[in-house]
Design brief:
three-stranded antiparallel beta sheet; 87 residues
């Protein structure tokens, strides 16, 4: 979502039409404190992992995946690109 928000903000400033956003994959990862976590996939929220296994995934999301790369400008710009699959 963030990539599309940034891309569409720039497209708007440049007078171009926004690129449509779609969410083909849907996941939820809910931290349950001392009880671990629960990780679900799909719009029907099918449980994929619970407890310590899901908690590890949640911690990875919160400490690694949601942050931009800390490398040089080329690495940052590469991470910002939206590919043909919309990712």
């Amino acid at each position: 979502m963030g990539k599309y928000a940034g891309l569409n903000a720039v497209r708007d400033l440049a007078g171009e039409a926004p690129r449509p956003y779609r969410q083909p994959d849907y996941t939820t990862c809910l931290d349950l404190g001392n009880f671990g976590a629960v990780f679900t996939m799909g719009w029907d929220r099918e449980v994929q992992a619970t407890g310590a296994e899901a908690k590890k995934r949640k911690q990875m999301i919160n400490t690694q995946w949601i942050y931009p790369p800390s490398g040089d400008a080329e690495e940052v710009f590469a991470a910002m690109r939206i590919d043909e699959r919309g990712r």
